[in-house]
Design brief:
With 284 residues, the chain is of the alpha+beta class. The protein folds into two domains: 7-141, no CATH class; 149-282. Helices cover 20% and strands 38% of the residues. The chain is built from seven helices and 16 strands. The strands form four sheets. Strands 1, 2, 3, 4, 5, 6, 7, 8 and 9 form a nine-stranded antiparallel sheet that branches. A three-stranded antiparallel sheet has the order 10-13-14, with no helix packed on it. A two-stranded antiparallel ribbon has the order 11-12. β15 (273-276) and β16 (279-282) form a beta hairpin.
């Protein structure tokens, strides 16, 4: 992880009236389980490797057995910008994919292709999976990138033993949340902080501050730590089975904060792990 990159990357998506989720290398970047209208961009350099990559864009009506409507349109693009530029106003579009799943015989359409961009879409391999409401968009990255932690973890088995081992690590971290030990949590997130700093070009101290949980700890009247789940959780694997995380009901995280005055609004603490030398390590 020695070199700095020339360009930084982001993924942008928009929907009009459906729920959505965006994954990269099958690692979830964002989830919105209620229908909405949004046009959102997230930095994504830390999820992009050398060579071939893939975005998985899920979008579905609510309830899921309801058909798409003719006006529903899904847009997904990769953006790039130079260090120091404002990604909200100066980012360039490498490529954009548009689909209208409510139209009969629709096909994904690639638009706004920038031939000079370091990211090149593999148009012939774009696929819409009707069973999972999933748009799969592969692309190649020609810009040299660091080797990220999610590429280096041990290959994990989808087994109860892996799930139970990771659950013990979640429970260990949960005790730090109970103790409101932000420094220990940031130390446990050392790899993630280092890589986010490298990907963004920001100082590690700044990234550590942004990643801090002090907002929750400093406002106990607004945020209340949920009890740790006692029932067995679901093991999720991604990035060629090198990244793992647990969920309870739906996509809810094992560690989350309830919001005062609301039975529905929560803040999930989404942690993604790798295993190296038999030890769990927060990777994202």
């Amino acid at each position: 992880m020695a070199q700095e990159t020339q360009y930084q990357f982001g993924v942008r998506w928009s929907v009009n009236g459906v729920a959505s989720s965006v994954d990269m290398q099958e690692i979830m970047l964002n989830f919105s389980g209620v229908p909405g209208h949004q046009n959102t961009m997230l930095p994504a350099s830390q999820y992009i490797r050398n060579g071939r990559n893939e975005i998985q864009f899920y979008a579905w009506p609510v309830p899921s057995d309801k058909p798409f409507e003719e006006q529903h349109e899904l847009r997904l693009s990769m953006e790039y910008w130079e260090q120091g530029e404002n990604p909200n106003t100066e980012a360039k579009t490498a490529f954009e994919v548009v689909i209208q799943p409510g139209l009969e015989g629709f096909k994904p359409e690639v638009v706004n292709v920038d031939d000079q961009a370091p990211l090149n879409v593999v148009a012939s391999s774009i696929r819409w999976d009707d069973d999972y409401f999933r748009l799969e968009v592969p692309f190649y990255n020609r810009q040299p990138m660091p080797t990220w932690c999610w590429e280096e973890g041990d290959v994990l088995r989808d087994s109860n033993a892996t799930r139970d081992s990771l659950a013990r690590e979640y429970r260990r971290l949960y005790t730090l949340f109970e103790a409101q030990d932000n420094d220990a949590l940031m130390d446990a997130s050392k790899t993630m902080i280092e890589e986010l700093a490298l990907a963004s070009g920001e100082p590690e101290d700044y990234v550590r501050q942004r990643a801090s949980f002090s907002m929750f700890f400093d406002n106990p009247n607004l945020f209340q730590l949920d009890p740790f789940p006692e029932e067995p959780m679901t093991l999720n694997l991604a990035a060629d089975n090198r990244v793992a995380w647990l969920t309870r009901e739906g996509v809810a995280a094992p560690i989350r904060f309830g919001h005062a005055g609301s039975d529905e609004q929560v803040s999930n603490v989404r942690l993604y792990f790798i295993q190296r030398d038999g030890q769990w390590e927060i990777c994202r």
